[in-house]
Write a structure and sequence with these properties.
Elements: H1 2-20, H2 26-52, H3 57-91
Helix pairs in contact: 1-3, 2-3
Length: 93
């Protein structure tokens, strides 16, 4: 449940960031997509650590705020950039 709430919050933050930034170029979207994929893959061990050790609540909060939330925001931001680029390419047709 907690990760779902963080995912929704991260998606809202990513949309806010995307609206504030200018339109992306194709090269930058590729870099963002690759970077977010790598970050999400590296996040999996942290998620497993959270499931295994729920005893320390301060450690859990630190991992959620300092690691998981930024990675989720970056992943959703890259998705927003990709969707905006595809919409711009479609309008050029």
């Amino acid at each position: 449940m907690t990760l779902a709430i963080y995912a929704v919050g991260a998606a809202l933050l990513a949309v806010w960031l995307d609206v504030r930034r200018p339109a992306p170029s194709l090269g930058r979207v590729g870099i963002h997509a690759a970077g977010s994929f790598l970050a999400l893959q590296l996040l999996l061990p942290a998620l497993r650590a959270i499931e295994a050790d729920r005893a320390e609540s301060m450690r859990l909060v630190a991992i959620l705020l300092l690691l998981i939330l930024p990675v989720f925001v970056y992943g959703f931001f890259a998705l927003c950039r990709l969707l905006r680029l595809l919409a711009d390419l479609r309008s050029l047709r």
